[in-house]
Every structure is written in C-alpha cells, then in structure tokens.
Amino acid sequence: xxxxxxxxxxxxxxxxxxxxxxxxxxxxxxxxxxxxxxxxxxxxxxxxxxxxxxxxxxxxxxxxxxxxxxxxxxxxxxxxxxxxxxxxxxxxxxxxxxxxxxxxxxxxxxxxxxxxxxxxxxxxxxxxxxxxxxxxxxxxxxxxxxxxxxxxxxxxxxxxxxxxxxxxxxxxxxxxxxxxxxxxxxxxxxxxxxxxxxxxxxxxxxxxxxxxxxxxxxxxxxxxxxxxxxxxxxxxxxxxxxxxxxxxxxxxxxxxxxxxxxxxxxxxxxxxxxxxxxxxxxxxxxxxxxxxxxxxxxxxxxxxxxxxxxxxxxxxxxxx
Amino acid sequence: xxxxxxxxxxxxxxxxxxxxxxxxxxxxxxxxxxxxxxxxxxxxxxxxxxxxxxxxxxxxxxxxxxxxxxxxxxxxxxxxxxxxxxxxxxxxxxxxxxxxxxxxxxxxxxxxxxxxxxxxxxxxxxxxxxxxxxxxxxxxxxxxxxxxxxxxxxxxxxxxxxxxxxxxxxxxxxxxxxxxxxxxxxxxxxxxxxxxxxxxxxxxxxxxxxxxxxxxxxxxxxxxxxxxxxxxxxxxxxxxxxxxxxxxxxxxxxxxxxxxxxxxxxxxxxxxxxxxxxxxxxxxxxxxxxxxxxxxxxxxxxxxxxxxxxxxxxxxxxxxxxxxxxxxxxxxxxxxxxxxxx
Lengths: 320, 342
Hints:
The structure holds two protein chains of two kinds. By secondary structure, chain A is an all-alpha fold. Helices cover 69% and strands 2% of the residues of chain A. Chain A is globular and about 80 Å long. By secondary structure, chain B is an alpha+beta fold. Chain B folds into two domains: 4-233, 3-Layer(aba) Sandwich (Rossmann fold), CATH 3.40.50.300; 239-341, CATH 2.40.50.140. Helix content of chain B is 25%, strand content 30%. Chain B is globular. Chain B starts with a strand and ends in a 16-residue tail after the last strand. In chain B, 38% of the residues are buried. Chains A and B meet through helix 9 and helix 10 of A and strand 6 of B.
C-alpha cells in the first residue's frame, strides 16, 4: 500500500516514512469500515453468483461456475437449450428499461436543471426564497412523493386525468401507472420532478464560479446572449455539469425505490435492481439474483469508466 | 476620436449616492485618469461611461451624441478589466477575435487585425496558447490586444495593473503610455487608485472623492497647485507634510503643506528643528523623519546616500515658494503670506 521498502534505503526519507505511517493509521479506520460495508458484501455477492446458494441455506451453496450467467445442454434430439441470466429476456428487458430510464431522465434533468439554474443565477428580488423553495421536491422522501404521485396518476380519482379531461386533451381516463404504454412515462415524470432541483443546485454552483467580468466583457463586445451562453457559459460550467451528470447517471442506473412504489410488477418499468431483488428475495433464486447484481455492478462500472474517459477526451479537444 | 462630456451625471445604488452631479469634459484623443481612494466612485464612473451601469440622472455625450440609452456595444468602446476577463477555454487568438466575429468581419480581415495587434504588443508568438499558459503580464497584454482589435473610439482601463507585481507594473505602464502615443485618435479613460500611475500616464487627472470631483488638471497642475487639502495629500509620494497648530498660525493658515522634496537642511537658517526618529534609504533618495513635537513626523527628502544617525538634531528650511496654505475648510489660501513672519 505504501512504498516502505523503497524508502528505507535513503536516509532522508525517515520523515516521509513517519508521515506515511501516520497517514496509514489515520486512514485505517475508514479503510476498515469500507472493507466491511462495501468490499466484503460486493465480493460475497460476486462469489454467490458462481454458486447454487439459496436464501434458506446461505452457507450451503456449491460452486457451479458460470451456470447462473450462461449454460447450455444439448438434448438427445440435437437441440441445444441455453439458460442463465445472459439469455433471460426478463433480464434484458430490465437492462433496456434501466438504460432508457437513465438516458431520458438524466438528459432532461440536466437540460431543465441548467435552465432553472440560469434563472436562479440572475439577480431578482426574493431569489433566496425561490432557491430554497425549488429544493422542496428533492427534500421529500421518495416513498412519500411516489405515493403522492401515485394518487395524482390514479385512473379513477387522480387529478392528472381530471385536469386533462377538463382541458380536453384526452377523451377517456388513462391508467397511467398500470398501462404498459404510460408506466415508464409516469416514472420519468416523477423522477424529473423530484431530481431536477438537485441538478439545478449543482449547475448553480458551477455558474457561480464564472466571474462576472466574462459577461461584462461579452456585453461590451455586443455578443448575443445566446452565443454567450453556448460559447462562454456552457464551456465554463462544463466541469461542474460533468460531475452532476455522473452523479445522476449512477443514481439512475441503480433505480429502485420510485419504480417499486409507483409501478410495482410492471414489465415496462422493471429495472435491473428491481429484477435482481425479485430473484434474490421473492423467487428464492438467490444465486441467480446475485449474478444479476454482479452484472449490474459491472454495467455501472463500465458506464462510469467510459464516461470519465470520454469526458477527458473532450477536454483535451478544447485545448488543441 | 471622441470627445466625452459628462453633464450633471449622478448614480445611485438604492439610497446610496455613488456619483454626485459630476460635470467633466474629456477631450478627444486625451488620456484621462480617474484617481482616488477606494470607494470614491471612480470605477462606477467608468462603468457609466461604458454602459455597464445605467445612468440615474444627467447626460453622457460622445461627440455631442447622447449615449444614455445606448447599449455598450453601440458606444464604440473597448475595456480592459482588472482581472483581464479572458475566456479561459479559448486560445489567445480566439480571445482576441471573439468580439470581432459579430461585427461582420471577413475571416481574413479578422486575422489581419488580430495579428497586427498581437505584433504591436509582442504577443504574436502566443496566439495558440490558452490564458492559463501565460504569465500575468502576457495575459494583460492579451486583454489590451483584445480591446485594440476592436479599434474603439474610446479605450477604457479599469485598474489594469493592479494584479501585476511591482516590476511588471512599471513595464506595462510604459506599454500603455506607448500605446497612447501610437493611438492618437483614441480617447482613453484610465482608472487607478495609484497616484504614481496617474502622474506618469495622464494627460489630465481627475481626482475623485466620495462621488465628487475634487480637481481636474494636468499632473503638473495637481502637483503644484492642489485645489484642496485632499488633492495635496493624495498626489505626490511620499505625501505632503501637513503642519497644523502654531507653525500654521505663524503662516496665517489652518494647515500648512510642504512636500518632502521642498525642504532643505540648513543648520544656520533652518526655522524648524527636530530630532531624527527614522530614516529610509532608497538608494537614489534618502528620507529623514523629523520629530517636530507635533503629531506626525516631518518627512524630508535628501539626495543620494546620506549617513545621518537616529537622534541627530536637524534644522530644516522650507523653500518658501513651495509652501501650500489651506484654510480650515481645506481650501487653498491664494494671497501671499506675510513674509516677515517666516
């Protein structure tokens, strides 16, 4: 972990050695906690995914290799039957749902959040109050807002149907959360409503880092505000925006609570987290669920790595 | 070339009067320096001229045309900011060309202008760099270059040297002076709190205090004939000695002002005598601090290298024609003092 052996050779390093030792002991408690709550469960899940462990017998599982991921056997008729998560249509449906949800929600939340942040960054009376007020949807616990929206989306008594009918935009009541065509839309609406304030806040922090001089200089040059936004504001706020987007993407890829409460058991909205929990707990396919959890972890890791890599490439592009 | 006229100009922020009924004419092609302590309104006055702040009342004219309702880009101005205000993500070239893109210049013309300005400021080898790869002085040159390419009628500087270190400040000051000589047709307004910058650069100086103009004049006028105690104290370094009490009464005034350079050591005819409490050796100059038994020590400027130990009793004599007398309102008394009392 630290380069003790390379340092002992040189006499000047004793102070440095001392510092490193101190640093290690300061970090040790945190490393220990992380090992217990993050590394151990993760490694254990990955291990479970290679066994036939069941929920009723956690320590009795036997090593089965990649069976939970992919296995096949050839019947006497010559037909080959594949099984495992990687050929499970329910799993790929969940992957597709999650990706769709993540891309649409993060994109819209970023755009709307940035717009809100631009408004909040302008000077007007009562700005402090508006800034506080806009955070309310984010501050409400997800379970509460999901239940609240579930009532608003209710097909018989919901206010959404009532309003749309009154205005004349729809001619019959829609079962927003139950209908396969609208379930994902409902989840997206609630998530965007809930999380845009958080994005706005992160964007606002980025916007406030931009010196006022930049805008004044552009004003003297007579540059159109829209051009200023795209050529000055956006590039300067980009680093903050990148961080905000990565936070939100991570969050969206492990989407669970809102879907669990708002649209339970709808194939149109089942996410990776939902389906792996189903297998782990409800269907007593513990090892199978572990395999799905492991895949979920791998997908998120790849997404983050890709994002950071592409983000860096982009930054270099700016410099050339 | 633009003549700038400020007529009864006022600016209030909320209930605070920042600029109070200012009347000022800045001649075409002139370099006018606004100088004053922080909070005197000099930057606000500049921002009123460039249009970043709205005028509360009064008129602003460029060549007789009202600018009150014109947006900054229609005024034909360029401004150099204290912080440089360069776009960190754009190369030097892009920074300089950014303001031109809108003005419908062809790419070729734009390039020619940028390169010409860059050559003039000796930054033509830096055009591909980003601002963060430049030194403070180079950044300031880019900021100046960005203003030059726009070929403004009026060139505004808002404390452009404040973020530079001392030696670079002197160099850049010289650059700006050269620029002023080259751009004879451009009216320049320069804001600073540093009276040395004001004295060295200005054709005329406007001293501001609490949103009012204290005095407008050439550096020589302000130095030789300050129209108030404030101007007398503000212009000149080290600052003018102010003597009150008995010494002033002897000269029939409330405050008697004498610059350190207008005092000579005279062991026979020296009328003021004091003990040396401190000395400063600046190489070319030598400053003596004499305790005359009044509040502040009397500063005397001597030439070259001197060796005067602390505690020495020294007699000094003021050069009579350089005495400044002020009444109790801080205004100068112009009639000559009765010389017999001296």
